[in-house]
Write a structure and sequence with these properties.
mainly alpha, 0% strand
């Protein structure tokens, strides 16, 4: 657990020390978290980079946040949350558990992604369309507050 906490702290410091305004960094954090919530396994990095260029926000903050939010440890939980939210919207209820969902995700590769995810795709993508803006907004607000506080504290030390 200490290693995970240290990794998160190091990732935050990499973002906080960027030479950019707190607003641009925070928008990058929000955009990175938004992208990470979509089940586009393997394409979050490229999508983040492309959108950061389009919206002219800090590329590094987008990419790092995407990797922090959606990593091998958190991926099953995030996508399971997306799936369950999508099920609630569609008013369906499956017997899929987090354990069976994790096993299912292990079977996914580039060739069989549509076959494996076929039955769960609709609630998964619908749920991600709902959770992504919420998580992105929370990440933006939290990121802005923390980056502003960090940069203000750092400015007074110099």
């Amino acid at each position: 657990m200490k290693r995970i906490w240290r990794w998160l702290k190091e990732s935050f410091l990499k973002i906080a020390r960027l030479d950019s305004t707190p607003l641009k960094i925070a928008i990058g954090i929000g955009l990175g978290a938004f992208i990470a919530m979509f089940p586009i396994i393997g394409f979050q990095f490229l999508t983040g980079l492309l959108l950061s260029l389009i919206f002219r926000v800090n590329k590094v903050s987008v990419v790092i946040t995407t990797q922090v939010v959606c990593n091998p440890l958190s991926l099953p939980f995030l996508f399971f949350l997306d799936f369950k939210v999508g099920e609630k919207i569609l008013k369906v209820n499956s017997s899929l558990t987090i354990h069976s969902f994790r096993l299912l995700l292990r079977e996914v590769n580039f060739r069989n992604v549509f076959t494996v995810l076929g039955d769960i795709a609709k609630p998964l993508y619908l749920g991600s369309a709902v959770t992504a803006p919420v998580i992105g907004l929370i990440a933006f607000l939290l990121g802005y507050f923390l980056i502003k506080k960090f940069k203000t504290k750092r400015k007074h030390k110099i």
